[in-house]
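Please check both lines for our workbook:

___
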Amino acid sequence: MCYRHQTEIPLFMKVGLFIPCYVDQFYPQVGKATFRLLQHFGMQVSVPLQQTCCGQPMANSGFECESVKTLQHQFSLFADCEYIVAPSASCIMHIREMGEKDYLSPEDKAIAHRFLDFTEFMHRFKLIDQYEGQSQAKVVLHKSCHGLRGMGLGQCSESMTPADNLQLELLKKVEGIQMITPNRADECCGFGGTFAVSEEAISVRMGRDRLQDYISSGAEIITSGDMSCMMHLEGIIKREKLPVKVKHLAEILFESVHLHKKQAQHVASY
């Protein structure tokens, strides 16, 4: 499902930035970091203020047909964009799956497949080759189930075959970053959207187990391409006052670019 192939980036590409509703409400800094990174790489970024939820919570709760109008509203806002980027593999997976449904028009289906996850976009247009950043943080990558198993951003450990992880490749481009390897590399955090509501006790226990693995492995920051997983883990972190922070992948990369620029300016001043 993931668009792994690389292609040259068109000049003056117009990119739409889709901000998931939970990012807009709880983690606006993630949207800002994604926006600034896209601008850093020369994109013309459009952020329609009328955008709303992609409809995934409604569809996952059994009301898929009722969610179509929400999705069609999104399509109308981004119709003139060459690609639409979002810092959420979960939302992109839902949109592209909906793009296969018969009750969407051919025009809507075409727009649905122009939606790309932030990681996909970085790789597809070789922006990873243009990236320069610095950090000294001890970071562990949380591989969300939607990104890993749904979008194919990496290889699952249960497949028993080694493969590159696209998000890990991005992080390894950050000079000086210390990547932490947990004992269980791609275990679910227990969020699962509505699962965290219907099966609260199991969800919390899974989150605690995931955090214990990350903390005992020496991580200071947990990062992911899905802030929904981070929202779940951060809730447990705050309630139990655990010694670890969460940041979206786009935040890590943007902060690292900013630090790299400051270091370069400092060296140039001598």
Summary: The first strand starts at residue 14 and ends at 17. The domain at 14-124 is CATH 3.40.50 (Rossmann fold). The first helix runs from residue 21 to 26.
